Every structure is written in C-alpha cells, then in structure tokens.
Amino acid sequence: MANSTYELATTDPDVVAEARRTYETTTALVAECVGRAQDEGDLPRDVDPVETARALLAAQQGLVFMGRTGLDIDTLATTARTLAAKLLPDA
Description:
Blueprint: H1 2-8, H2 13-39, H3 49-68, H4 73-87
C-alpha cells in the first residue's frame, strides 16, 4: 500500500482516497487492539489508542523500508524492540 500510494498519489486522487480509507481502517483496528491491551492491564490507561496505533503503523512502515535497504535482521530486530519499548510502555 505504501509503495502504491507513494508512486501514484500525486497523479491519481482515487489512489489517495483509497490509501486514506485503508490507513484509517487499519488505524482503527490497531487502536482496538491497544484498547483491549489497556483493558487487560498490558498498557497504561493514559495511552491514547488512536495516536499509539498511528505511531505503531509508522514504525512498522519504517521497519519495512529499512529492511528493503538491506539492513540485517539483527539490526531490524533491535530497532523493533527499541520502538516497542518506546511506543508501548509497560508492555
């Protein structure tokens, strides 16, 4: 989705609309998971589910990009653990 959006968004408004709809749907699904984690005591109550979902999606896309540059799996795993520690406190 990120590649298609990047390549086509400047020339096709339908691509932009579909990308936004898809990302908002994905954000809502991840936010539900964050809310569930809060309900189960795995995340603090003061964490905003939607903002956390957006940050997690941005982190995930960043890791995908980094992986495509050829970074080794150990570096990617370390980066993912660091992101998780920062984005999901007390998880």
